[in-house]
Amino acid sequence: MNSRKHIVKRLLKTLFEFYPVMMPVVIACILFNAVISSIPTVFMQNIIAIVEQSWQSGDWSSVSGRILHFVSILIVFYVLSLAAGFAFNQMMAIITQGFLMKLREKMFRTMEKLPIRYFDTHNHGDIMSYYTNDIDTLRQMISQSLPQLMISTVTVVTVLGIMVYYSLWLTLLILCGVVFMLWATKKVGGSSARFFLAQQKTIGKTEGFIEEMMNGQKVIKVFNHEEESKRDFDAINEQLFRDAESANRFANMLMPILSNIGNVLYVIVALVGGTLLLTGAPNVSVSGMAFSISIVVPFLNMTKQFCGNISQVSNQVNSVVMALAGASRIFSLLDEEPEMDEGYVTLVNAKEENGEIVECPERTGMWAWRHPHKAEGTVTYTKLAGDVRLFDVDFGYTPKKIVLHNITLYAKPGQKVAFVGATGAGKTTITNLLNRFYDIADGKIRYDGININKIKKADLRRSMGIVLQDTNLFTGTVMDNIRYGKLGATDEECIKAAQLAGAHDFITRLPEGYNTVISGTQDNLSQGQRQLISIARAAVADPPVMILDEATSSIDTRTEAIVQRGMDALMVGRTVFVIAHRLSTVQNSNVIMVLEHGRIIERGDHQSLIAEKGKYYQLYTGAFELE
Prior knowledge:
Helix content is 60%, strand content 14%. The protein has helices at 4-18, 22-38, 40-57, 63-112, 116-121, 124-166, 168-215, 217-222, 226-279, 293-315, 317-334, 427-434, 457-462, 478-483, 491-501, 504-508, 527-541, 557-571, 606-612, 615-621; strands at residues 346-353, 356-359, 367-373, 378-383, 388-395, 404-411, 416-421, 442-447, 450-451, 464-467, 476-477, 517-518, 545-549, 575-579, 591-596, 599-604.
């Protein structure tokens, strides 16, 4: 974790990056406002000195004019201070909300570049907490704590300079009191800060738990797990209460302690100042003035001002610590290693001229791999055919646990390859490697004869359509969700894809047809209907390679027959990888791979595997249950 000093520097650097002109203007306004707030003490000293001199001399003729002169200057300063205060408050409102907006955008852009591995290993509710709680702590710090810290710091420095100018003895007395204030801040504020950090982490855990429980609400009710869920939540909530209660208890103790130290110091300065005045003690100061009532009285005011601003600085410690805790989590997200992509082979529109493949700007229905050769300074084009081959592939989600062992297979253009086997055998893992959601530990994967590590990931994934077991629809119309597979698709293309997938009939019966608005999770569509839309989404992309990961597992038998006809039409001329537990859906595959514990133990078509009477035969006839 970054040090607090580093986090503060990075926050300020980011602020200046987002607002390079407005930030210096705001700082100038804050500095001006803080200096002006310290000046009344000087005017008070001058006015008291005028009255004191007139009292001693008995000449009151010019007192009112001289006092009015100082008051007029002070009014001008106050008007300027009011204008500066209004200006920086307005600009800080823009900066605060703009900074948070731009930071959220930066976080989201970073998140979109992260590998799938990150989301597999981080709680989704905790990730959401970055955008809510952690961002909100920065809002409070930037809009309130940062300006207040700057004002208080400048005021303290200015007042300290004025105090030294008037009397060194009384200044040293006040500084002794400040030492006690800082000691109290360190002791009490340090404990508060520690618990605020813990609170911020516990909030993330709480949100993660709630998100998990909401997603699994049906399972909780089916298994009557409500009471256990309540107990688990109560435990996390109790921890959050303890952290928050401890943090706020120490925070609420700090201000009364500092205020009382300031009050005691005020009384001590009054007593010492009066004693020095009565005894005629010599004064040590930059001004060279002797002790007088015109020095002691303003000093009392400066004591209140000095201690009050020290208290204000101390009071901001908690919100600053919370903000730094939130910023640390945000920066940890921003510092995550993005998904690496060293590929340089791209997918382009192409056509054939004189027996050669050439690149063209318009869509022709033909794609080709553009392969630049830096050494020769040439570019070659390979037609996108969908020839996929794996050679001796090993892979593990962690280096210590290999889940795929020596996987070798090929899928020629237009072939249908099926993966069957027990849950956890490695079927989905293979398709994850084809999309390069994860990179292999050893071996090679070639796509149309090109090592997939050389292909840019976006182009690789654009050439493959995928239908997952878990459907993911997004808030928008049905048409928008189908068009998600190809943003430039026309309405006619989307409808044709829906017809191909067998989704057209039920979509036309929706209240608004293709313009019916659905959401990612809350709508009246059945699981099967949602899956049909996701199949249509893959169909509209019209890729040469299709991956169907349990695509019909959520569909009833009657609907499956409809979908299967559409899928068969969709598969024509494409290389297809099918993962299925329903072996009836893979019988017409060109080759069936039987996996067990990350190894291919059988391969062949349906008839040959049945004749072998091995594991596939056992699975198909029901003589063997899936583990």
